[in-house]
Hints:
single chain, mainly alpha
Amino acid sequence: MTVKKKSNTSGGIKGFFTRASKSFLTCGLYAKDSSYWVAEKLCRVGFMVATVSIVVLMPLVFEIAREGQMIESERLQVKELRAEGFSDRQLQEMGYLSASIDRAPAVATMQK
């Protein structure tokens, strides 16, 4: 009589679950390694975007804020010159910005 050797992979439902668990483990390890690689790349890209935005966009934001302050300062000067009797045309000839000279619409200044 000869004795049959059992193979490492058994059949049936038990074999299916054994092979599936090994497959899930292998796939999980691959996913972990891949996600680590993707996270590394995303961190590098995020760092580059943050650095570029700081270097490029922050001076732009500061310049816009400075421009707003300059217009407000000119508006005060224009208001004082109007009180002295200068016309809009004269103020434009003096070189003041049109944003400083333009008056608010009458509707915007009405109060209830």
